[in-house]
Design a protein that fits this description.
2 copies of one chain form a homodimer. With 484 residues, chain A is of the alpha/beta class. Chain A has helices spanning 12-23, 37-51, 72-76, 90-103, 118-122, 156-168, 185-201, 207-222, 228-235, 239-247, 266-280, 285-305, 310-325, 355-372, 377-381, 454-467; strands at 4-8, 27-31, 66-68, 81-84, 108-111, 131-136, 145-149, 172-175, 335-341, 384-395, 404-414, 418-427, 430-443, 448-449. In chain A, strand 2, helix 2 (37-51) and strand 3 (66-68) form a beta-alpha-beta unit. Chain A is globular and about 75 Å long.
């Protein structure tokens, strides 16, 4: 049976939590008295369904079941984890916690609060030990960070269980060691927000210019190394102490004069809202959300390719799921070897998957098969590999952005040196392309074909035998442009 | 003759400027009395050579010539642009400007200063109008941002020329409308730095935890949308005003208590340097630089795929160069249609060009031919295109990172609907792969093959006729795995 999470408050943040749990296979019950809540959550969920699968190299789990609960008590019943994302009003949060703990005093309750400390949230609670901060970042379904902040009375075993659950839904729980107003990340956001308001107010820069000053420069750095590691690199071989000696004294410079809080007048609000319209008004919020998500997917995939930062979180999430989901040997004949999704970089100017990406999808399929018969990365490191000598591709349909593709492989023939395969790339069970390939087992150092070792042949030849009885696809043996 | 830039001060920043100019085809003269300067610049240049070509979809220009000048006067002689990157000491900068303007009073002088205002830089100068701030961000060869700050006495035509030059070397000049201490971006960096020092000092978070709080969350957002556009999206359909109404009042909250400057004691420096060692000490600075650059290349390529933010700057840079480099009609029979360079993203785990990229190289060649016969982007926009029906690839050699490839195309046959071509991908005149393709002229709306218009046939058929006399490559008509 699927595990259950309860989400109290179904706005953009609550909806993001719901999407994360659902797409990771949890059932979710949402309570929010707003009659628009279900529509809003469905919109967040649609965004999440378009973006989150593009981060994974495994097929998605079966999505959990979403329920809109009539009462808060219905929502939390049987839940293993409860996340509160109601408005930032302390007395409202206290009422929600009191009601939850009437029926579930021992269930984990994370709060999405950006401002309140856990000790404030816990005031007057029936079981304060189970209430803690789990502060996420929008879009919750893509960004891994959740600041987990306990107080002195928190149950630390419960906190560890909460962190495990967050990891299970692909997040990075950052355990904040001391409670403090605004936790950690929002202190920086607040500092920058304050400076930005001054710059706009004083006419130094518009909202657009400020955004460019961030995203053309240090914003790119911070997506992968943060503040201190970036400066460590800037300090060069002389190290962090040298950097601090060089730049520390700047703290005393007149830049500090703008630490005041600008007055939050109607004029300032109008100025900023007007500039923001001029900057981004050509896009609807939905369009901006999709652009943002697509960009974040691109960053996260780049980091995943490099096994770094947030990309390492994604890899670990895949690994955890790979153990859970897979190690089921590929099934069927032909073998279903790969599941893929068409990513933005795969699209050409026609809006279709670009032709070289069909061969890429085929390589993914063949590589998975090679790993399966033991010709994996370690094997390649030992100096041997299968090289493709020749390929023939038939284009039979079109794949578009976001399409889910399956790669199947049939062994046409195999001997010690040669491996002749037929790969079919399919969308909804229909072939969009087929690729016939001849591979050779190669001694990479000698640069010539050589017999594969017995261990590989012992895995390969039985499959070849089993596939010998399969019908031979019509495209096999075909030359380009040959009349039917 | 190549244009010349002079770089005064050859540290990490000066070296980054030198690399940007050199890799964009400018000659560069550096003046720096430090005997280590040449070694340092060569190290930055090695990093830049490994990273910058990966951002371009065109072959790199011939690299300019780097000279280490014996005197400042030698360095600036004949330079069209001078960039000053000496230490942040105003009297030193004044001396440098005075010496430059003795021989070149009318040459553009950008300063890399992060702290000084242009009016301060211009004090007592022979020609203050030519001195301005051009503040870049490390690594200068990858991050597009350059804050361009004039003062009231600046020559605005000169500023526009400087911005054009910065665009020519792939940068994004952000014209800052009012001079202010620390310009724009560094105000934010300073604000965050200050908050971060407090958090470490107070034991709320370590340097590593702070970096995670940034790069797992808002750091990823800021690489692509900056501050205001991110908040606009967060505000949802209700818009920016709603967001401000909701979050503006937080300005009055106690988060403001930490706007003081922490005292910069030896203990604080040791605490931070120690934490930074624990966090990143397993990597050398060179390793961290390469990791950072590889991550930034990944982000920038993702944005380029999506034509957004810094990625749009890269695209525009390519377009500008495409006009400059190309539009020479193809020569020879077969036609030489494309020149390419093997980029880092084209390499597989064997260190070789991955097989799907041979088909990509072929597509680049065929696309160039299609544009040449009139089936260009505008033509596709009108609803017609050539689609690949079928391809046969022969692998005959190996290409590696940085190899320059040429794509030639021979028309095997052509009629109203069908276009049968043979593409050869060559390295140093040797074929590394051949691709035989059948393309069909398609009515994209109707989704079926249709006759090409006369205008295209008028260009295509004479080439087909001319190519009819060429020897037919042996690989033509070959099926995969066919015995010779």
């Amino acid at each position: 049976m699927a595990r259950k999470a309860a989400i109290i408050g179904g706005g953009v943040i609550g909806g993001g939590w719901a999407a994360r749990f659902l797409l990771n296979g949890w059932d979710v019950a949402v309570f929010d008295p707003d009659p628009q809540a279900e529509r809003k959550i469905q919109e967040v969920l649609a965004n999440a369904r378009a973006a989150l699968p593009a981060l994974s190299d495994l097929p998605m789990m079966a999505e959990g079941v979403l329920t809109m609960a009539d009462t808060l008590t219905d929502a939390v019943e049987g839940a293993e984890y409860i996340q509160e994302s109601v408005s930032e009003r302390l007395e409202l949060k206290h009422r929600v916690f009191a009601q939850i703990q009437q029926s579930c005093p021992d269930t984990l309750i994370g709060s999405s609060t950006s401002g309140f400390k856990p000790s404030e949230l816990q005031q007057n609670a029936a079981n304060p030990a189970m209430i803690f901060v789990a502060h996420p970042f929008n879009p919750v379904y893509l960004l891994p960070l959740a600041e987990v902040v306990p107080s002195a009375v928190s149950d630390l075993d419960a906190i560890e269980r909460a962190k495990d659950i967050l990891r299970e839904i692909g997040m990075f729980p950052l355990h904040v060691r001391k409670e403090i107003d605004a936790h950690v990340a929002d202190r920086f956001l607040e500092a920058v927000w304050r400076e930005a308001l001054w710059l706009v107010k004083d006419g130094v820069a518009t909202t657009e210019e400020i955004d460019e000053a961030i995203r053309m420069g240090f914003g790119l750095r911070w997506g992968q190394m943060g503040l201190f590691e970036t400066y460590r690199v800037a300090g060069g071989e002389a190290g962090m102490k040298h950097f601090m000696a060089q730049f520390g004294p700047c703290l005393e410079w007149p830049w500090t004069k703008l630490t005041d809080v600008p007055e939050f007048t109607e004029e300032l609000v109008d100025l900023i809202a007007g500039q923001s319209d001029a900057q981004s008004g050509q896009y609807s919020i939905r369009e901006l959300e999709r652009i943002r998500d697509s960009n974040l997917v691109g960053f996260l995939r780049a980091l995943k390719d490099r096994d770094w930062g947030a990309g390492r979180v994604l890899r670990e999430h895949d690994e955890r799921r790979r153990v859970a989901v897979a190690d089921t040997p590929p099934a069927g004949a032909p073998l279903v070897m790969a599941h893929m999704q068409v990513l933005p970089g795969w699209i050409d100017y026609n809006g279709h998957m670009t032709e070289s990406r069909y061969l890429y999808a085929s390589s993914e399929t063949t590589d998975a098969f090679l790993r399966y018969i033991g010709a994996d990365m370690d094997y390649v490191a030992s100096g041997y590999s299968y090289y493709t000598a020749e390929s023939h591709i038939m284009h039979r349909g079109e794949a578009k952005l976001g399409d889910r593709l399956t790669g199947t492989l049939q062994v046409l023939s195999a001997d010690e040196k040669r491996l002749h395969v037929f790969v079919s790339i399919q969308k909804d069970g229909q072939e969009v392309a087929s690729i016939e390939q001849m591979l050779l087992h190669v001694d990479m150092k000698a640069g010539r074909a050589t017999a594969a070792p017995q261990a590989i042949l012992d895995r390969l030849l039985p499959i070849a035998n089993a596939h010998a009885d399969l019908p031979r696809p019509k495209a096999v043996g075909r030359a380009t442009g040959q009349r039917k």
